[in-house]
Amino acid sequence: MKIDDRVSTYMALLHSAAVKPQPQPVGKSAPAPKAIAEAPPAAVELSSTAVQLADDEARRERLNVIRQQLAEGSYNISGKDVADKILNVLKG
């Protein structure tokens, strides 16, 4: 199971200024929900690697097998492997 990219992206988002809440002066209230609803949607760009992976037929077939195993309840992954992968990504 590949989680490197997801964890790396998450960690990058945590450290970016766009995610950090901006301090508000005392006495100011949060913006009205209407103002938030009118904000333009964020643009998403796919990397060339993501586009290649989306077109990879063999990968798509492996994912379909895993999805079927998940639905049947027969897909098992070692918790130790997941924890090791997460720790390696967080260590850098």
What topology emerges from the helices and strands here?
Elements: H1 4-15, H2 33-37, H3 48-55, H4 57-72, H5 79-91
Helix pairs in contact: 1-5
Describe the protein.
By secondary structure, the chain is mainly α. The protein has a domain at 47-92. The chain is 59% helix and 0% strand. It has helices spanning 4-15, 33-37, 48-55, 57-72, 79-91. The model has no long low-confidence stretch (mean pLDDT 75).
The tally of beta strands, per DSSP, is 0
Q: How would you characterize the largest beta sheet?
A: none
Structural class per helix/strand content? Answer: mainly alpha
CA-CA gap between termini: 19 Å
Low-confidence stretches at least 5 residues in length (pLDDT < 50)? none
Spell out the helices and strands N to C.
Answer: HHHHH
Into which percent range does the helicity of residues fall? 55-70%
Notable features of this structure?
mainly alpha; 5 helices; 92 residues; extended
Gist of the model:
By secondary structure, the protein is an all-alpha fold. It is 59% helix and 0% strand. It has helices at 4-15, 33-37, 48-55, 57-72, 79-91.
